[in-house]
Specification:
633 residues; 5-stranded parallel β-sheet
């Protein structure tokens, strides 16, 4: 009709059109004419005004309308299909369906599956087998020919995966299968994104078959969260999108561990912009409660950024054992410490110079680390407050100095120290200043190169004990400890056996000191040393993300996350994105690290054998396909 080809999935129902004359006859049928008898009183009734009349038969236009409605119902039940030739299958072999089932497919997964089921229905009507293949490597999709009924069951039971599609691996796998079974037509249900290996993937498909069909979705609403940085004054992050054709506005939501919304940030993309930065400028105490950032209505694991202790700024309290002239900050024993920590932590200083008063003051400010520079004997009140605070997860870091060396007790120290200090390279010493030894593989400082130009002239010596080697994080070339530490309950005690200025060592003047202090502070409020030690760490899965970016419990296929020093863990089928560890110490595993480039699929560079089609979007078409097995494209 009107030059468009028309087909019906159930043409036998059209036989119902034959019944239209019968329906017409029924509509025209009227009861027999009544017999008339003269009754005088009826003359009076005849002169009464008639308010309602019932015709002896329905008007012709009403009869025609009823017939037309009946005909349309019959035609609709027959399952009409426009352009049936456009969805016909090419080739003679099995029909292959390759599905991009990664994170970018989550938002329109239902349309993707309906399209795949429509292709399977066509294959069933043509009596051809089906080959299912996914770019995330589903084990249940073997890549071997199966019946249309089996393929339909697998598709209906599937869901998008919170993983990155691997086009090159998929292409190699398909090429291996094609050595034995050559598909007659390959249908690629793309997620609309192009990756580094996509070109090689499409070339492989073109070498296997001349009948290639590409289904490309709309990616205008696809976006991901890249790098997130928690600066002293604000938390910033980057949102990346592949489609830059139009301007759009996105909203970033920050949630806490209870999934409650703590803040929102709006960003406006102008046409042509692929990256945009968002900002949360709330106080650090509130920003440290952020555990999940997500793009509203993006509905994908890529639009979610999980935050753990590594993304939180530690609140560090500083206490000095001596006063100094505020006009000469370089003379302060805390100067190099504050300079080393300011880029990574928020510094808090007590307003009281008395240690007994400053410790409760800093604890009340919510610090997770307290650093003491050459503080000698601690008052009983300060010891009690620190003991309780360390037991709950606080970290006390102490630096050596004359006062600590002369202290009469070793309270709140990881090791016992000898009175006084060891002088290296002085006028009365036979020894020369010592360089740092290489950091042990089980130390939090593993991976940091020990510079040869860093020398130690004075240090506090630790008394020998059976656990000294286990407590030593760093040592000098002669084996004497430079940094010792002990975990007590949920907290830490750490001692740097050198001072905080250049009188004892030039370590505070080096970049090594900055990295050592940063790693030390990062252990605070963390139940594990993931990322800080080269020893293999195994973290059980706790809460995982599905492809739509929602939390789900671990399933039987999820494996513990194994972390090795110097190796950044990545997502896989065994380790999907989510939180690993325990509630006391979490490690976030995100789908993306850094700011990856998102590119929209460029079909212009594809082999000429590709034919482009659209996904099924019409709910009416989906309903018809389910009822009648139609092959709508």
């Amino acid at each position: 009709m009107f030059g468009l080809p028309l087909a019906f999935t159930s043409p036998w129902i059209l036989l119902g059109l034959v019944s239209l004359p019968i329906i017409w006859w029924l509509l025209r049928l009227t009861p027999p004419r009544p017999q008339e008898e003269t009754f005088p009183p009826t003359r009076i009734l005849a002169r009464l005004r008639k308010k309602e009349e019932t015709p002896a038969q329905s008007p012709w236009w009403l009869t025609l309308l009823r017939l037309l409605m009946a005909g349309l119902v019959i035609i609709a039940m027959a399952g009409p299909v426009l352009n049936p030739d456009d969805s016909s299958l090419a080739g003679d072999g099995p029909v292959m369906i390759v599905v991009d089932d990664g994170w970018a497919s989550a938002k329109d997964w239902e349309s993707r599956i309906e399209t795949a089921l429509s292709i399977v229905s066509e294959a069933e009507q043509a009596g051809r087998a089906v080959i299912l293949e996914s770019t995330t490597g589903r084990e249940t999709w073997s890549g071997l020919p199966i019946t249309a009924q089996e393929a339909s069951a697998l598709l209906q039971a599937s869901d998008a995966m919170p993983l990155l599609p691997a086009h090159q691996t998929t292409g190699n796998r398909i090429n291996t299968f094609a050595q034995n079974v050559v598909p007659g037509q390959i249908n690629w249900l793309s997620d609309g994104l192009e990756r580094e290996t996509t070109s090689a993937f499409t070339d492989t498909l073109a070498q296997i078959s001349d009948n290639l069909v590409l289904y490309e979705p709309d990616v205008s609403q696809v976006a991901i969260i890249g790098n997130v940085r928690n600066d002293p004054s604000e938390l910033t992050g980057t949102v990346i999108r592949p489609d830059t054709a139009t301007a759009t506005q996105l909203e970033i939501i920050a949630r806490d561990e209870s999934n409650l919304v703590l803040s929102r940030a709006l960003i406006d993309f102008a046409a042509g912009e692929s990256e945009k930065e968002f900002v949360f400028d709330q106080p650090v105490e509130l920003r440290n409660q952020f555990t999940k950032l997500e793009i509203e209505n993006a509905t994908s694991a890529g639009a979610v950024k999980l935050l753990d202790d590594n993304n939180r700024r530690r609140l560090v309290g500083l206490i000095s054992g001596e006063t100094f002239d505020q006009a000469q900050p370089l003379l302060s024993p805390l100067y190099y410490i504050s300079r080393a920590l300011e880029p990574y932590s928020d510094i808090r200083r007590s307003t009281d110079s008395n240690v007994a008063q400053s410790v409760p003051d800093l604890i009340n400010q919510g610090v997770s680390v307290i650093i003491m520079a050459d503080v000698g004997t601690l008052p009983d009140r300060g010891v009690e407050a620190l003991d309780d605070w360390i037991e709950k997860g606080g970290m006390l870091v102490r630096f050596a100095g004359p006062r600590l060396g002369a202290a009469q007790d070793n309270q709140l120290l990881p090791v016992e120290i000898r009175p006084g200090d060891r002088s290296l390279g002085g006028a009365l010493s036979w020894e020369t200043p010592k360089p740092l030894a290489a950091f042990d593989s089980n130390s939090p400082f593993a991976g940091i190169e020990a510079p040869r130009n860093v020398l130690v002239q004075r240090q506090l010596l630790a008394l020998q004990e059976s656990e000294l080697d286990k407590k030593t994080w760093a040592r000098l070339e002669d084996g004497t400890p430079l940094v010792t530490a002990e975990q007590r309950d949920a907290g830490w005690l750490v001692l740097y056996h050198v001072g905080t200025d250049a009188d004892w060592s030039n370590l505070p003047l080096s970049g090594t000191f900055v990295e050592m202090l940063r790693r030390t502070v990062n252990l605070a409020n963390s139940g594990n040393t993931a990322g800080s030690s080269s020893e293999e760490i195994v973290l059980p899965p706790l809460r995982l993300l599905n492809a739509k970016g929602a939390f789900t419990p671990p399933n039987q296929d999820t494996q513990p996350l194994v972390i090795n020093a110097g190796v950044v863990p990545s997502t896989s089928r065994e380790n999907p994105p989510g939180f690993y560890g325990t509630e006391d110490g979490l490690r976030a595993l995100n789908l993306f690290d850094g700011n990856p480039e998102l590119k929209k699929l460029d079909v212009a560079g594809f082999p000429s054998a590709f034919e482009k089609k659209n996904y099924i979007l019409s709910l009416i078409h989906i309903s018809l396909r389910r009822r009648r097995g139609s092959c709508i494209s």
